[in-house]
Amino acid sequence: MPPNFGLRCGASDNVRMPRTLPTSLTLGSLVVDTPVVLAPMAGITNAAYRRLCAEQGAGLYVCEMITSRGLVEGDQHTRDMLVFDELETVRSVQLYGTDPVYVGKAAEILCAEYGVAHIDLNFGCPVPKVTRKGGGGALPWKRVLLGQILEAAVAAAAPYDVPVTMKTRKGIDEDHLTYLDAGRIAQESGVAAIALHGRTVAQAYSGEADWDAIARLVDHVDIPVLGNGDIWEAGDALRMVEQTGAAGVVVGRGCLGRPWLFRDLAAAFAGEQVATLPTLGEVTGMMRRHAELLSRHMGEVRGCKEFRKHVSWYLKGFAAGGELRRSLGLVDSLAALDALLAELDPTEPFPTAELGTPRGRQGSPRNRVVLPEGWLDDTDGSDCGLQEDAGEATGG
Questions:
Q1: Hey, is 316 helix, strand or coil?
Q2: 318-321: long-range contacts (C-beta < 8 A, 24 or more apart)?
Q3: Collapsed DSSP state (helix, strand, coil) of residue 251
Q4: Residue 369 CB partners (closer than 8 Å, separation 6+)
Q5: Is the dihedral angle over the CA atoms 201, 369, 205, 82 positive or is it negative?
Q6: I need a surface site. Which of 33, 67, 75, 382 has the fewest CB within 10 A?
Q7: Among residues 84, 38, 9, 88, which one has the least CA distance to residue 256?
């Protein structure tokens, strides 16, 4: 059974409650009990992690991003990523693509063959290998192409009554903003909602997210807007909704090593001001549950190897020694994991200094975003000859 943490009041969540607090999220025919979405993250939001987070609180949990051409052409690695837990009743997938035909066909496959209930389109990825091909956060600069892709996906999903949403960033950089046009195009294309990460592609994950941009997008469109960026605690989510008028939030790096954040978020949107402060013993219970779920889906050896990347996030701020951390980073079986976790002090309190602090990758802003030659010359893109790599698998 998943660890059952107590909910303890925390100073980080002593915020003024929004006057209008959304209690659910409506995406076309899909109603999400809590207005919270787990952002797709490459190598992170697999079936095991989605279930782990779902055990903590209500919300929408999105599968890591897959490529449309890879799905259409039957790439095995792409297909292998489309694994769902047996308790995952609402299947949500993020799709990447630069060709309207491939995106439309991929959307139909997801609906017809995989029974998805929600499709999200990625127009926010800042990774250079994606933007150099005109994909991810670079694509909304081509307004016509963006509309063609959105329309193709919406049309393909419509017979199955599956809502299509999109996620984007403010723009390529501060001189090439796209989010307001992207919102208008999304609305005109029949998209059910748009999520905005309040950073540009050039910022990647550095600096602070611009929540004012999210508020401007809310005022600019009639469809629901989801806010993304710098949600480290449940109180941050409430502040974002209060300041921007967003219909909900998308949470990515904030839940790394802290899947119980979704319990805090569910409680917060239900009107409670809480923070989960687990002891180290409770955290190790969550770590064991995570490794167990990974092993169930992937096999024990591979599952334990996948778990290694999460160790530093779970133990962030705790007093675990360097040698023990290194050993945990090499774990290859559940038995070995159990033996190592037993060496930790289960009574050690949660390091409250970590509350409200960034987690995961941050880095520095980029001097230049890698784009296809002549990409910024026009905003059409309907015949720019972009090529997708069927075998490429990237993350949102």
A1: coil
A2: 318/280, 318/283, 318/344, 318/348, 318/351, 319/345, 319/348, 320/280, 320/344
A3: strand
A4: 126, 128, 131, 138, 172, 173, 201, 202
A5: positive
A6: 382
A7: 38
The model carries a pTM of: 0.92
Residue 358 structure tokens: 């960034």
Give 121's strand partners.
95, 166
Domains along the chain?
24-276 (3.20.20.70), 280-349 (1.10.1200)
Q: Which residue's structure tokens are 């915020």?
A: 15
pLDDT digits (tens, 9 = 90+) for 181-223: 999 999 999 999 999 999 999 999 999 999 999 999 999 999 9
Confirm if 313 and 258 have CB atoms less than 8 A apart.
Answer: yes
Residue 143, classed as helix, strand or coil, is helix
What's the pLDDT at 7? Answer: 39
From 53, 63, 111, 125, the catalytic residue: 125
258: nearest Cα among 328, 334, 395, 354: 354
Residues 193, 223: contact at Cβ < 8 Å?
yes
CA distance 233 to 236: 5
Distance CA 308, CA 302 (A): 10
AA letter at 198: G
Contacts within 8 Å (CB) and 24+ apart, 82-89: 82/114, 83/46, 83/47, 83/297, 84/47, 84/114, 85/47, 85/48, 85/50, 85/51, 85/293, 85/297, 87/51, 87/54, 88/47, 88/50, 88/51, 88/54, 88/61
Alpha-carbon distances, residue 181 vs 168, 194, 196 (angstroms): 11, 12, 12
Q: Mean pLDDT for the chain?
A: 92
Would you tell me the crossing angle of helices 211-220 and 179-188 to the nearest 10 degrees?
Answer: 30
